[in-house]
Amino acid sequence: MPESVDPRRAGTPPAIDDPAGQAPSTRWPAWSAPATLAAWWGLIFLLTHIPIPSTGGPSPVPDKLIHFIMYGGLGVLLPAWKGWDRPIHWREVGGLLLVIIVYAVVDELLQIPVGRTAEWLDGVADLLGGATGLAVAVWSRGIARS
Predict the structure, then answer these.
(1) Cut 0.85: pTM above it
(2) Is the separation of the CB atoms in 130 and 74 below 8 Å?
(3) 73 to each of 13, 40, 97, 110, 133, how far by Cα in Å?
(4) More reliable by pLDDT, 76 or 59
(5) Residue 2: exposed, middle, or buried by beta-carbon count in 10 A (0-12, 13-18, 19+)?
(6) I want to staple 126 with a disulfide (CB 3.0 to 4.6 A). Which of 8, 14, 71, 98 is the partner?
């Protein structure tokens, strides 16, 4: 008697590296998620700690929007440290939000020694961006039931 075939996978060849014959959940290598997170976090640190030359006029992009976008990316990528498509547990959301809050405060304070200013509104933009990014990650990955 032939084995039952999942109708969603009918006609799909099994993955070579999966002995059970089930396709892997993603085609990205496992190391790519934490590597992307580390690269993004490093970029944030670099961009927020280099002195900004005075251009004599206002920036074409509002400073708070830049903070929101940078930390939004961090919020999306933080849950990826264990993999791209792993569902997020509710208990992890609070911990990840705490990481965003602590890093936003530390990031603002570490700008002082390099001649930049620590602004609490930048911290608010960081927090709002990080929380929004985290919400996008939760929405796209789902919440783990267990």
Answers:
(1) no
(2) yes
(3) 35, 8, 13, 20, 6
(4) 76
(5) exposed
(6) 71
